[in-house]
Every structure is written in C-alpha cells, then in structure tokens.
Amino acid sequence: MSRAITMYTAVGSHGTAHGIAGLQQRVDAAQTLPALFCDGEGCTAQVRFVPEHTRTGADRVPVTIPAGIQLEKDAEHAPTCRYNVPGRLDALLASTLDPALVHRLEDGRHELRLLPLHQDLKRGGGPALDAHLRTLNALLVLRAMCDDDALLDARVVLRLGKKRVAWDAFFYALDRYDAAWERVDAASNEIPLALSGTVRSHRAAQPGADFSTTFLNCAPKYQHTGIVDERVFVEVSVGHDDAAWLRSFPVGAQVVMLGLWRLGRTSTATRPHPTDPRRTITNVTYKLALRPVSKQQLVAVS
Ligand SMILES: [Zn+2]
Question: Read out DSSP for 221-282?
Fold first, then answer.
C-alpha cells in the first residue's frame, strides 16, 4: 500500500516552523536545508522536503509536480499524528457514519453511496446535503492527504446508483485536472466530482459589475503540449457571493472542492517569445468552475 502522504509544514530541530514556500526559496537560493521533522501531535518522524519538479505524465508530456514534504524512508508517524492517515481512516470508518451514505460490506470494506448526495446537489442543497457532505468531506480530506488512491481504494468502494465508480473517476488532484475537465466535458449528465487543490488567489467582481460573485482560484495545472511554444493550463475555481467565506480559505491553503462542475469558456492567448522575436507563445486555458449550493462543498485539508 502506498504510504505517500504529502505534508505542507514541518519543524526544524530547534522547533522552528517551516512551510513549503520558504523551503522552496532556500532550495532556489542553493541554501542548505535544516533537518526536518513532522509537526503532527506527538510525532517526531523525520521528513524531507521535495522541491517542485517535473515528471513525465501519462501521455509522455512533462507535468510540474508541486513541492511537498514527505516522510523519510523507515520513518513512521505517531498514532496521534494527523498524518497517520490509515489510522484516521480506520477510526472514521469504525465510527457511526451517515447510514444513508455509508454501508459496511461483507468483505470488511465500506461502500459510499453517492446517489443521495448527487440528488441533493441537483436539488440545490438543504440540511440533508450538509449532513451528507460532512460525512464525505471527512473521507475526502484523508484522500487529499494521500498521493494516490491506494489507501481509500482498499477500504472504501464508491457507488452511484447501480454503478461502481472508481476513485480515479471521482477524485482528481492537480496532476489530473485535465482528466477532470475531459470527464465533465464527456458526461451527458452532471456528475459529482471532487478536486483537490491549493488556493492561489481570490478575485472579487469588478466594481460596477452586475454580479457580486467572488472567485477562489486554485493553482492551475500547467503542462507543455509537445507542440513548440504552446502551453496548456487547466484552471479550477469556486464562485460564491460570500467573499468573506471564500477568503477564509487563505492563499496557500490545501482544499477539496466537491460538486457538479461546469466547464468555463476555453481561452487562447498569444504573446511574443521573451527572447526570440520570430516566435509566439500560445497559452490555451481550460476552465473548470464550481458554484456551491452548500458551504460544505469546500473544505480545508487538515
Ligand atoms: Zn507525523
């Protein structure tokens, strides 16, 4: 089973707090990094900083992987540590979960039924939706802390009506925003999807605009297309009239967003190449947007 769990903060041996941005700056400035330890409750596991890097994606196109903090080989999180995700998942599944949503299967796994949630989302919210989402969010936060589906996949089966839904067709992290876009584009019906991301900005409506929506934008997926001077971005945003609520998820926060996603208008922009006047850079931006009907549709990962 994968034990790849990404952390976003750590402490040095003198108790100094370190975040991703500061550690990346040190790497960029070719400075030595301090020894780092997990900052979870009662945990002293040794961890290491993994700077932003590029990995070859499924279609052999390089994908930028954001910086993160990972457990050192042979280190283990303490049972009380928030990064003890398998332990937290066991405790969660052993607790009394919303019976309309979660059923225990004979093989010991649990089945999560997405249909009641889907129906409530389509109806536009209400107290039942909030309750369902709180149950689901607890699972999604744990999934978002893992680097892949392995842990959740081994213990929780997803079902939408009669159909089994694979975790990778329901949950999408940054490196798979393009797959989420394609899934929403291909779906004949609105389907609930969960996307995890890092808050990058909040954009208020322009003064004088005839709408009051504020957008919370996540760091986009950025990739080379294999075509010279063409780059593709996939942007993910959440729009809501309650700006203060969206701003309660500060820049840099890790979040999970769940709901019925819509595609925004794809835009293409060109600009001159910075050093070669004969060349033009083309940026193609695909957009995924969520308009929550419940404030439980956006949750911080912690
Ligand atoms: Zn820990």
Answer: EEEE-SSTTEEEEEEEEEEES-HHHHHTS-TT-EEEEEEE-EE---EEEEEE-SS-TT-EEE
